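Re-run with default settings, no changes from the original entry. Doing this only to confirm the output is reproducible before filing.
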Amino acid sequence: MNQKYKNEIEETIKSLVAQRNLIFERALNVAMNGVLTEINDVFENNDIYEFDLSHFDDSSDSNLQLLVDLIKSIEKTAESIANLNSIDLKEYIE
């Protein structure tokens, strides 16, 4: 694989990871103002809590489920591209 091609693949993976994170943030905001309103109401400013996709798995919110499906699709695509090109995806995940 030539270097320019490899660079483009690496930049593509970076972009996919960045978009995944952005969409996750939007999904979290949708959840916190919808199905997770009660949780949102008890948080104080500067509270820190780590959310992941599993927090949304059983949601009845169709919009949230569409976002989760999109996130999973992006993750699968990034993993596949990384595997096809012998790239360690962990290097690109924050």
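The longest helix spans residues 3-32. The chain has one domain: 3-92.
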